[in-house]
Amino acid sequence: MIILGIDPGTRTVGYGLIRSQGSALSYVDAGAIQLRASDPLPKRLAGAAAGLREILQQHEVDEAAVEDVFVRENPRTALKIGQGRGALLAVLGEAGIEVASYPPATVKRAVAGRGDAAKAQLGTMVARILGLSEPPEPADVSDALAVALTHALRRNHPEGRPAR
């Protein structure tokens, strides 16, 4: 089974694809859809959607997982990211792909063992789990792979994170 993880954004959309075969997890592909910050939001949303369509054409995705929006200090930023997330969800819906959503703390807890893990720690654990020589860059890519891993781990161990 190929699982697509997505870290939504309005400037950078991270994506990561993993293969889940039983309890074996392996890296397939990952990267970032880069959007120009100077473009108006509707153009960036269209760019994110087009980028995701390209990824879906290149890979046979069975399921997807998208990180939930987290509101820090700026609700306007969260709203924009939510709009970007919605554009991506629409593309996945058009493709008929089943989608799960996970809050950032759940992703961090599933992959790094702590809901308040730092981005660097999350990237290190993604690399370790997938047998990569170093954490994928930018952090949006590591985050997307972590979302995909969370989905795979939840599918294989619905009661929680397996012991390592």
Task: Give a topology summary.
Layout: E1 2-7, E2 12-21, E3 24-34, H1 41-58, E4 63-67, H2 75-94, E5 98-102, H3 104-112, H4 119-130, H5 139-156
Parallel strand pairs: 1-4, 4-5
Antiparallel strand pairs: 1-2, 2-3
Helix pairs in contact: 1-2, 3-5, 4-5
Q: Largest sheet, order of strands side by side?
A: 3-2-1-4-5
Q: How do the SSEs run, as a string of H and E?
A: EEEHEHEHHH
The share of residues in helices is 40-55%
Secondary structural class: alpha/beta
Given the structure, what is the number of helices?
A: 5
Query: How would you state the average pLDDT, rounded?
Result: 91
Report the C-alpha radius of gyration, rounded. Answer: 15 Å
Residue stretches low in confidence (pLDDT < 50, at least 5 long) are none
- Give a count of the beta strands, DSSP E runs of length 2 or more: 5
Major sheet summary line? 5 strands, mixed
Shape call: globular
N- and C-termini, Cα separation:
22 Å
As a percent range, the share of strand residues is: 15-25%
